[in-house]
Amino acid sequence: xxxxxxxxxxxALPIIERLREHHFEAVFVGGAVRDTVLxxxxxDVDIATSARxxxxxxxxxxxxxxxxxxxxxxxxxxxxxxxxxxxxxxSAYEAHRKPESVEYITELDGxxxxxxxxxxxxxxxxxxxxxxxxxxxQDLKKRRLRSVGDSNARFQEDALRMLRAVRxxxxxxxxxxxxxxxxxxxxxxxxxxxxxxRVQVELDKLLAGAVPxxxxxxxxxxxxxxxxxxxxxxxxxxxxxxxxxxxLSTRLFERLHELADLDLRxxxxxxxxxxxxxxxxxxxxVLRFPNGRSKxxxxxxxxxxxxxxxxxxxxxxxxxxxxxxxxLASGNAAARDWLQxxxxxxxxxxxxxxxxxxxxxxxxxxxxxxxxxxxSVSGRDLMKHLQREAGPWVSECLxxxxxxxxxxxxxxxxxxxxxxxxxxx
Length: 425
Ligand code: ATP
Ligand code: MG
Description:
Elements lengths: L6 H4 L2 H9 L4 E4 L1 H7 L8 E4 L3 H7 L3 E5 L4 E6 L2 E7 L1 E2 L13 E2 L3 H6 L9 E2 L5 E2 L4 H6 L2 E2 L5 H7 L2 H12 L3 E2 L1 H10 L8 H13 L3 H11 L11 H12 L3 H4 L9 H11 L4 H10 L4 H23 L2 H15 L1 H13 L9 H13 L12 H8 L5 H15 L7 H11 L1
Parallel strand pairs: 2-5, 10-11
Antiparallel strand pairs: 1-2, 1-8, 3-4, 4-5, 6-7, 8-9
Helix pairs in contact: 7-9, 8-10, 8-11, 14-16, 14-18, 15-16, 16-17, 16-18, 17-18, 18-19
């Protein structure tokens, strides 16, 4: 099969040329080749070579010895970075994870043999010819994900490959080969050997695709997440099991892809699994989410459950007040995040009708003041005007004024605010 080079690969040709001038073998490998075959846009361009890392370092002026022990050198060329990795075997696998040491080899096919799936074990040379010893193209045509070699052995070597399998099935809309899927089910307990940070990275990639619900379905069917180093928590595990068994599960996540923002997709999942902010936060923490992200996701989930209680108790103007209070407490950004999630989660049976969500959005847009900083009086002004000492009453009073200004009962104007404060005393 002959391929024409897409721009990102063409841009890296000088690196291959230089290695070849020095009589080393050098080819494009990995995701870039796979995505070129599929006609998709390319993320990063990886190169494999028979040159040893020290030789690569000598040939290129600007490089970083990123993974010197594993044979990877990052080469900088015209503002881009490329990982150049020496052909290698990964013989000694330790504890079902990536090996500590590697053995360099001079043959490309040996290097391709260590790769996880046939579609990731293709190489593209300078002449544009695809080298595909394990039938990656054939598998892609059949939309099939298949291990290179024996799946059982490959998943036992490195258990992360099972999660990669589920991710690729989801993102590229593949079906697993029979043997490959059986091996996932058989070896899923080995997930306990994998660092949770790496699980998180895979799940993020899986969820970021165009059809995240497909990946989720296979995550559920695989049971991989029930065998992590640490449990995501009993409630969430139960909810995942129920959702996985329910015939409704495809419909539950039907509109997940409508959310462009990855964090909101996570929030959507927590809400759909009916997990309150605490259990969602716990699971995110287990998955080693950065604090900022997990806080943002939890804020959306919290808002959802708060609003669920509010709409049971109130409507109309009273509901508007509840909503404004919540917006002041959680912030405008969380409110807008939640509205997006609630819209995507909106199905016929949903507690939040389209009309209600429209009302909430309109009310949100009408709020002209969102924080104490924007209020036209300060604590000092209050103390002076009311001739009172500092105390907890100051912030209580300020917050009350903020609320009244936010719902439009009071103008955000100094005299009006001070008058109201005096009245409240
Ligand atoms: P993407 O970059 O889209 O996430 P990718 O296939 O490029 O997907 P990388 O993690 O960048 O994935 O790895 C590059 C290549 O290295 C893969 O295509 C595969 O050939 C090989 N590879 C990566 N991880 C593994 C692994 N755990 N086991 C075997 N081979 C792997
Ligand atoms: Mg890649």
